[in-house]
Amino acid sequence: MGLNATTVYANAGNPTVLKLLGAGDRRVLDVGCGAGDTGNLIRQTLGATVTGFTCSEGEQSAMGSPPPVLGRGLAGSRAGGV
Fold first, then answer.
1. For residue range 34-82, what is the model confidence (pLDDT) as tens digits?
2. Exposed e or buried b for every residue in 44-77, given b needs 16+ CB within 10 A?
C-alpha cells in the first residue's frame, strides 16, 4: 500500500479524541493530521498547542503556510521524510 499524496481528508474534527485528552494537556502531537480538522477542534476546545504531521503534500497545502489551524504543520514523504 502506497501513500496517497493527493487526497485531502477534511471534516469537522473527531470529538471522540477530546475524551482522550485532559484539561491540563497543553501540547498535542497529531500524527496523520490530514488537513488539521481534529487539531483545530483540540485547539479551540482545550486551548492546546497542536503540532500536526501528515505524509500528504496535498493536505499540507490545504493547511496553508504557515498552517493557520495548528500553529505548526509538517509534511513528509517516504522518499524525503521531514
1. 778 898 899 999 999 888 887 777 777 776 655 554 555 555 444 444 4
2. eebebebbbbbbbebbbebbeeebebbeebbbee
In this structure, what are the phi and psi dihedrals at residue 50, rounded to the nearest 5 degrees?
-115, 130
> Tens digits of per-residue pLDDT, 9-43?
667 888 999 999 988 889 998 888 877 889 889 99
CA distance 34 to 30: 9
pTM for the model: 0.66
